[in-house]
């Protein structure tokens, strides 16, 4: 099943790329996601998703299969198994960033395959859930970026070092 979403963030493309390819930083932005460990280039964790009346929790791993720093395109492969044994999910998630003035447009295309109880829901329900999750992700990411910008712009200027006197060096201070 192919799903498409897009959102815009209030930062230049290079900063957006830096943040969006840092899985440890952005994982908490995705509702229901919890990053548990990182081993090399593999990110392992749990994603909990509610589809209709069913709540599924997938435990799995994700890795970048493509990370094009020049064209700002990343492809992430994710696989997970329902923790209750009720199915599997796998996805290829492609993010393409485009500069829009001093902002960045992020287009996300997901090729999703699910089995088990969640698979009974049609594309319409899955697209709605995907759009809702992506909207919440974009809102959380925007808050993260605002906090990052506030911290960067309000950071105190480095203080000048006080000159060391000869009595301090001799231990007489």
Detailed description of the structure:
- The protein has 173 residues and is an alpha+beta fold.
- 27% of the residues lie in helices and 43% in strands.
- It is built from four helices and seven strands, in the order E-H-H-E-E-E-E-E-E-H-H.
- A seven-stranded antiparallel sheet has the order 1-7-6-5-4-3-2.
- A hairpin with a 4-residue loop joins strand 4 (54-68) and strand 5.
- The longest helix is centred in the C-terminal third of the chain and has 31 residues, at 123-153.
- The protein is globular.
- It starts with a strand and ends with a helix.
- Residues 155-173 have low confidence and may be disordered.
Question: Helix and strand layout, with pairings?
Answer:
Elements: E1 2-9, H1 13-20, H2 23-26, E2 33-39, E3 42-51, E4 54-68, E5 73-82, E6 88-100, E7 103-114, H3 123-153, H4 166-169
Antiparallel strand pairs: 1-7, 2-3, 3-4, 4-5, 5-6, 6-7
